Amino acid sequence: MNSLEELFTDQIKDLHNAETQLTKALPKMAKAAKDAQLKKAFEDHLEETNTHIERLEQIAEQMGIKTGGKKCKAMEGLIAEGAEAMEQEGEDTVLDAGLVAAAQRVEHYEISAYTTLIALAEEIDVPEAVAALNMTLEDEIRADELLTEVRTETLYPAAPKGKQEKPAKRR
Question: What is the 8-class DSSP label of residue 3?
C-alpha cells in the first residue's frame, strides 16, 4: 500500500465482497424471521444491497478496478454470527430480536466502511464515487434505523423479559 488510491482500491474490493456475501445471507435471515415487518425489512434490504453492488461495480469500472480477488473477513464473521442466531430455538420475538442484533452489527460495519470509503474518495478527488457512496451510506443508515424501529416498537415490547413474576399473595 503506497497511496490512498491503492487503499481506496483495496477498500472497494473488500466492500464489494462484503455486499456480495450479504446477498447470500439476507434471504436466509428473511426466511428465519417470524415478524412480518422484519421479514420485509430483510427482503427490501436485499434489493438495496444488489443496488449497492451495482454502484460499487460502476465506481470500479470508472476507475479501472477489478472487483474480485478479495475476501471480506469481517463480513464473513458477522454473517457467521447471524447464522448462529438463526440456529437458536426459543420464543419467536426473542429469536427475531437476535436476528435484529446480528443485522445491526452488519449495518454498523457497513456504515463505518462506507464512511471511510467516502473520506478516501474525497481525498483522492473522485466526486462521482463520493456521490454514489453517499447514496449507499444513506441506505445503510435507513436500514439500521428501520431495524431499531422494529426492535423497539414491535419485538422488545412483545418479548418475555425474563423476570420472574412474584406470585400473588394469598389472604
Answer: S
- Residues 9-40 have pLDDT tens digits of 999 999 999 999 999 999 999 999 999 999 99
CATH number at 4-158: 1.20.1260.10
The dihedrals phi and psi of 166, each to the nearest 5 degrees, come to -75, 135
CB 147 within 8 A of CB 103: yes
**Using CB atoms within 10 A of its CB, is residue 40 exposed (0-12), middle (13-18) or buried (19+)?**
middle
Task: Give me the residue label for grid cell 456504515.
Answer: 111
- pTM, two decimal places: 0.90
Whether the CA torsion 91, 94, 74, 147 is positive or negative: it is positive
* Residue 20 and residue 60 in contact, taking contact as beta carbons nearer than 8 Å: no
